[in-house]
Design goal:
Layout (H helix, E strand, L loop, with lengths): L1 E4 L5 H15 L6 H10 L2 H9 L3 E6 L2 E9 L2 E7 L8 H15 L4 E6 L4 H6 L3 E9 L5 E10 L4
Antiparallel strand pairs: 1-2, 2-3, 3-4, 5-7, 6-7
Length: 155
């Protein structure tokens, strides 16, 4: 296993991993309009900008990209693991690494926006819902998500 900062050359693979995961997993939880919303949200431009900003990490297994996560300050986002690799603890591994990096920067807590497929993972890792949000998508579907937070240490 290798966990490292993503480079510009990783953008196509990261984008494929994210888009394939959304197309495979999210239809079990969301209406088609909401799946399209997530696909648009995680566009090539946004992924590339996050990589350029040094916010994205990748997890490789034998040289194969199997997961990714990003962090901007104490906000964790864009955590994805290939569907066929889920359930192996790799999402928890990525999350732990991102939390450790935030702690090194002296953040006392981290927060994230949780999709339905990931809420249970975050709950098991000590995150607690602090807010419920919603947004209407272009097709009139209602996207609802949790804002979750985890204390890393006492303030």
């Amino acid at each position: 296993m290798e966990f490292r900062k993503a480079g510009r050359e990783d953008v196509p693979s990261i984008l494929t991993l994210i888009q394939d995961t959304i197309r495979t997993v999210y239809p079990r939880y969301y209406l088609p309009g909401i799946v399209d919303y997530f696909l648009d949200w995680h566009s090539r431009e946004r992924v590339a900008a996050a990589v350029e900003a040094g916010q994205v990490e990748v997890l490789l297994d034998g040289g194969r990209l199997v997961g990714t996560g990003s962090r901007e300050g104490n906000y964790i986002g864009r955590l994805f693991v290939l569907p066929e690799c889920q359930g192996r603890g790799w999402g928890s591994l990525i999350l732990a690494r991102l939390e450790a990096e935030a702690a090194k920067e002296k953040h006392t807590a981290v927060w994230l926006s949780a999709s339905l497929p990931a809420v249970c993972l975050y709950d098991r890792r000590g995150y607690r819902t602090v807010e419920h949000r919603r947004e209407e998508t272009k097709d009139g579907s209602m996207l609802v998500w949790d804002v979750m937070e985890k204390q890393l240490r006492e303030e």
